[in-house]
Structures are given as C-alpha cells and as structure tokens.
User: What shape does this take?
Amino acid sequence: MAELSVAHLLGIKYLNRDDLELIFETAAQFKQVINRPIKKVPSLRDITVANLFFENSTRTRLSFELAEKRLSADVVNFSASSSSVSKGETLVDTVNNILSMKVDMVVMRHPHPGAAFFLSRAVNSVIINAGDGAHEHPTQALLDAFSMREKLGELQGKRVAIVGDILHSRVALSNILCLQKLGAQVEVCGPTTLIPKYIESLGVSVSYDLDHTLAHSDVINMLRVQHERQHLRYFPGVREYSQQFGLTRARLEQAGHPDQVIMHPGPMNRGVEISSDVADGPQSIILNQVENGVALRMAVLYLLAAKQEVPAPAETPLSV
Assistant: This one.
C-alpha cells in the first residue's frame, strides 16, 4: 500500500504531489463509505484521538470528531477555556499529560503560527494541524481542492480566485500552496490593506477589482473578513466592503460564466462577502465542501495512523 511521505500533517508545504493524490484517492473511497446506510468502518478501532482546540471552532472540530467516530476511534475533546492552560500550564505540559493517558493522535487548533510544528518536535504523537493562527489550515485546503476536482476534473491550468481577507487567512495560504502543487493558476483579490505585501513572491497574481477577477476565473473561493484577528481598521466599513468585494447574483451574471464554481470555507457572513442567493444558488458547492470535509479528514487520519504502524484491524476501507 502507498503511504504518505510525512509522519504529521503540519502544513501543505510539507506535502508532495504524490501525497495529495493519495489523500484524494483515499478520501474518494471514504466518501462512498459515509454515504452507505452503515457509515462506520473499524479502521481506527482501539486508537485514541485527542482534539485540542485552543481557539473557538464549530465546523472543523465537528468535522474531525465525526471523521474519527466514522473510523471507530475513541475520541477525547479538549477545550482550552476549561483546562489548566487558563491557569498557566504550558502547551507541552498540557499535551504530555493528555498523552500519558495513552492518546495516539492529536488534532490541534492554536492561535499561534507554528504551534503544530513546535508540538511535533516536543511530544511523541501524530500531530494534525487544524489551523495555526493566520499561518496554515491544511485539511481545509485539501478538502477545497478535492471539491474542485470533483466538479471540474483535473486542476491543471484552471484559474482559481481567492477573494477577501487574505492578510489574516490561514485558508488562503494553504489553498495557494495546494492549488499550485496541482497545477492551478491562483489569483488573490481584495482591498489593498488586506493583501499581504509578500503575496506575489508566492507566484500568484493580485487584483483589487472583483469584477475583473470574476471575468476570467473558473473558481471563486470567498473568504470572510476576520475581525477577530484585526487590531486596526483595514477598510471604512462593512457596507463599503460589501459594495466593492461582495459576491452578488448581479455580479455573477455580469461576469457571464454560468459554469463558474462558487466556494466558501465558512463561516459565512451573508450579505457581506456573499449574498444568500449566491451561497444557496446552483453554482455554489459550499455544502459539498462540508460533506467532503468529513471524508477528507477520515483519509488523513487513516493514512497517518498507517504511517505510524498503528495496529490495524483485518478490515480496511479498501476492502469494504
């Protein structure tokens, strides 16, 4: 059986093209599993996974938890607000205490960039990065690319636009890296104040005009404005932002591409970066992204467990 080249999922930057193809192939098999009447497989039976979320999360935490339970893993959920971290305990001490309870894998979201990388060097466990500050969010990028391939086929040469708060977005960086490995052309679009100065060094094009971007893109991935990470005022107000960079039905019709794919990693601010009729419209694959997130995360968990030579039951997803 093919295996990943990495022992942890810390970021897209550490994966190669073969890793991406293996993850997508495995996710496709798991998507068939979760659409059956019996949705569970015993692939991670007797494996314990700890979900450590030091930032608030709904979609990602629930998606990981459901993926773990579909694989028959034992699941431990950890919230920083109700833990000893709030009393001053260090990250390594917290995780080591959890691991001493015989936890095999750790899924972690943390507000500081590089936290997952740091932890992978400090503790003896499989680490999966569920988002580290404004740095990376690898499973979101993987499920986004998986969803695009389902809709469009191969992404080689496809034009993908990422629109919105690029400066504070971990989703944007991971998507850029993932899409480029798959041969797509990436453009970022948003207010001047929300586009990082270094972004062109990543090999992407930059636009400050949404209508111009819509005119030549195959996929539009809308991002929300992340007010919780902003300590300055980056634009006059929500109304002005929506007028310039909000995706509406009128804008889509003006672009004249009825096959254009609309995406959003969530949570959505309806009426700000995207209107309800677009989010719920025929070009949107937003709910497909949510469904694919479970299958994709099942694939990542399964492949990393296999990489660590975790004892596996006789029945694997390849034989169900």
User: Anything to note?
Assistant: The longest strand covers residues 126-132. The domain at 12-136+291-319 is CATH 3.40.50.1370 (Rossmann fold). Residues 44 and 73 are 5 Å apart (CA to CA).
